[in-house]
Amino acid sequence: MKIQRIWSKALLCVAILCLMASPTAKISAAAPATNASVLWYKAPAATWEQQALPIGNGSLGGMIFGGIDREHVQFNEDTLWIGDERDTGSYQAFGDLFVDLADTREPAGLEESIRRDSSDQRDADTAVDEEVPSSQLRADPQSQPTESYRRALDISRGVHEIRYTQGDTTFTRTYFSSYPAQVMVLRFAADKPEAYTGRISLTDAHQGIVTAHENKLTVTGSLAGYVYSEKNPTDRKDSYGIVLNYEAQLMVLAEGGTIEASNGGISFTKCDNLILLLAAGTDYLNRRDKGWKGEHPHARIATHLAAAAEKSFDQLLAEHVQDHRNLFHRCSVDWGSTPEPIRQLPTDARLKRYKEGEDDPDLEELVFQYARYLMIGSSRPGNLPANLQGLWNNSNQPPWRSDYHTDVNVQMNYWFVDAANLSECFEPLADWFYSIRDVRRDETTAAFGTRGWITHAENGIFGGSTWKWSKGDAAWVAQNLWDHYAFTRDEHYLSERAYPIMKDLCEFWEDHLKKLPDGTLVSPDGFSPEHGPQEDGVSFDQQLVWDLFTNFIEASEILDTDEPFREKAASMRGRLLGPRIGSWGQLQEWMVDRDDPKDEHRHLSHMIAVYPGRQISPITTPELAEAAKVSMNARNDTSTGWSRAWKISIWARLHDGNRSYRILRSMLRSMIYDNLFNTHPPFQIDGNFGYAAGVCEMLLQSHMGQVHLLPALPDAWPNGSARGLRARGGLEVDLQWHDGRATRAVLNATVDGCHTLRAPEGQEIDGPVKIELKAGQVHEVKFKTRLEPESHHLPEW
Fold this sequence. Notes:
The chain is built from 18 helices and 35 strands. By secondary structure, it is of the alpha+beta class. The strands form nine sheets. The protein has a nine-stranded antiparallel β-sheet, covered by helices on one side. Strands 2-3-4-7-12-17-16 form a seven-stranded antiparallel β-sheet. The protein has a five-stranded antiparallel β-sheet with strand order 19-28-29-30-34. Strand 24 and strand 25 form a beta hairpin. The longest helix has 22 residues. It is globular, with a radius of gyration of 27 Å.
């Protein structure tokens, strides 16, 4: 592999992808400025959860600590799971990469000191999940003093960089996880020759065999015997019916000096530069008919490493940056400017100021874009969907299994993806949900004697599903599947993925719904996650079944199929128990009017009809929308991280931007760590993703059959712009506003379609409200002050 000492600036300047057909019609929006898209810190990370920084390519992720004399990269691979078709199991930690610098001694007792359940925790009932002590960040306490340390993550390029000076030598490390190359790349460079002497080692979280040969470290192992034991409701503690094999390979490439494999590690002496290439995988295959397993990953990993080693570092970097930017730079937001002295502060210092009450609109924007970065890093085509921690996990007994919780969490992960112009990142959710259909059907039929299927609230990659049945959950995920079609208008996807699932679920509910004496249909024996009684007609189920039937009917019409069943679904929808207003003006959570005005539970399950659904809206059902406000006021604005994120979107759907912003601000002040991870607590990535969904809903809505521009703009964002937001119907939308009023919008059609426009409150569209656009056509929207009160139109359902 050819290694360059000096990067080529030309290769780093990758052109931003232009998605609009007419550049002259677009709102001007340059690529984000450097300090608008960078998280940076003056010291190494001491903790995994709150300070380390993530990189990922959808399948291979790493958390970077940035130690000066010991670098620590905790890495994950998305298919490293335990479990089977009965039990959720859990996502697993993979291992750790350590690079000891300025010390060639083998790290004494490293394996014993590192953490967690590596030391024969196969059948333990308690998790061990300790951070690496901060003292271990320095392998040689006698090393030279360090100056000008900077640890930074540029989310616009997907590149992590560490820079510092010791003596007269400046050291630079550059890390990224490449989707095109399917490897993690770590480069250690310096401006003086012979700067690097030390040792490289890998640790494995499952007692795999570590071997060193020439310039490669290999970890090979099996997940046999590992179980998730914390609060496990099953009676099986010894093993799972499916056992995956795994492997990781690390290749070391040096310029100058020497490298030597010995005693399970690789030592390097007086090297000018080092490049480390890491790849990992399992034999998981998302095919039940193949037993969920394919070939051992060894050959595949070796092929990826060999191909990457044939390219220069600059080539690998350029390919990665272009791939990342093709997604990242599609969308940007700007609702204010933070003073430059504050923008130049380290991220943790800026966050501290914000938590003390200071304004920082650029930080608010950074958190939005950080969510997009995390999604690009944890959910790419061909991979598994983002789980409760995205891709990153440092424990074999992670909180809530780090699984696919379907009573809000995995849905929240994907609410924003299409709206924020990352449609490709949605594919893993649809592929995984489709792959588990037969497993779920078998258990559902055995438990309920119905056709179709549903899930429990906890779910794993093999279709195993534990804890308790949550009947509405599958319909809720199907809502995400429908929405992806609504944004993209991809009829092949609708036919091959979303529609078969929606029909399965409709069949379950046809068989399962209970008819009351007056003919009303209710879900029997349901519950409202994760509290309250278990009984008939719970709003959680009722609203989701209404949504499922509505989406199925539209899908059936679009595909021109299943007309008799479509008519049956329409009939059942018309007989469903609908939303009710209770004794204190609230939107009822249960069929029985028992809501407690002092109930502040984190779940907002009776608000699904407001968001992410479309059954209740101030536009079409103002009385129900007011009742929803009463319930939301009772729940108040505080709670866990993900719950606050959901509240941002609900209030945006109720057209109260100031309330949404108040919650957004409180979320950043109390539920965000220094590395900008959201905390439940502990760390859950759904809050990061839910925050981005809320921002999208504040600026643009399209769920009610109208493209509603700036529906919930807060007073705190009087001037601003957004570029590359997506609306349902295949539209990309650019927006500008000034003094709280829209000044210009540009619509770019990605498919043929007709669209109805809706102006912000107090304004009118200056021109046609209904437009028909062909794919590639651009339409500019102007505004004027509304002279007459706006009329509302009832839906045609």
